[in-house]
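Lab notebook page, bench 4
Experiment: in silico fold of construct C2
Operator: M.H.
Input chain length: 357 residues
Purpose: comparison with the prior construct
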Amino acid sequence: MERRIYYNLAIVATITQIISSIFLILLFYNLYNFRMGPNPMDLSSMFLSALPVLIGLLVFILILLYLVSHLLTSKIIEPINIATQNIESILSGKELEDVYVYDELEPFIRTIKTQKREIEDYISKLKKAEKARRDITANVTHELKTPLTSIIGFAEVLKSGEVSKEDTIKFAEIIHKEGTRLLGLIDSILNLAHIEDKNGKKAFEMVNVSQIGREIVAQLSIRAKERDLDLNIRADDVSIYGNRRMIQDLIYNLVDNGLKYNKPKGRVDLLIGRSDNYCIIKVKDTGIGIPEEEQDKVFERFYRVDKSRSKKVGGSGLGLSIVKHIVNYHNGNISLKSELGKGTEIKVRLPIKTQSP
């Protein structure tokens, strides 16, 4: 660019110098001849005598133009170089500097800054998604491996044929239990994947939450009696616009957790009501409780406070994670209060709507 500016300035200056010189020579020639009278000077002689001065002046002008063009180019190119460096910073990860550039370049720089932020956000999301994928893969592999190992081990013992009738029945019960646990785990994983699929259309309808709560309490009442637990429900008539299957899973998982992690002769209360424009679903139990330092983790996938107890009662560690995703799917919120050894209370707030969100 500097050469182009110099060449253009040099051409313009040279042409201007030649035209000006010719005009001045003619002017001085006429004046000189007018004063000299009858012995005028030859035009060519005057031109030749002035030629060294003209050439020297032209060289001086060209040198001056080179310096001027270099200075102009530096000033012109500087904001463009800064803009180029800012663009390159997208790849290097450096912060874009707030420096002066041409007004014409401002929209371009703003676009670059916006795209840089979008790229950084996208890369951050990709990293989080990749980490979540690795964690899920590791957890799923571990959770599937445990029951499969038991099934294969007891199946090999039965295959040997050197097992008594009593042991055969015992091993078959274990295989059935582990197979049921494995099937439930797979179903929970598929259910969670379906809830997390944000591209699918939300199949919403008017759902009577109170009716679903009563059905689930009736369904789990036998299990509560077997464990010597008192299961109760107090529900107002509340309906929301949501996904019926998900609301069923939400209430079932909350009540089921209250039963699994309770103490003998304990109590589980399901409360369904209305507050402002929200449906309130609250499950209180008198169970083992959750340590304060672990309360923020209970909604993570495969997280279990008491792993030995979870394995004994068949917990997969996905129940509360599914609950949280269902709540988010319905644009609600969830909170937890718990005291170790005294029980847990989980409260869900779902917006009451009469049409699809």
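Observations: The helical segments are 2-36, 43-92, 106-160, 165-196, 209-226, 244-260, 307-313, 319-329. The chain is about 65% helix and 15% strand.
Next step: discuss at group meeting.
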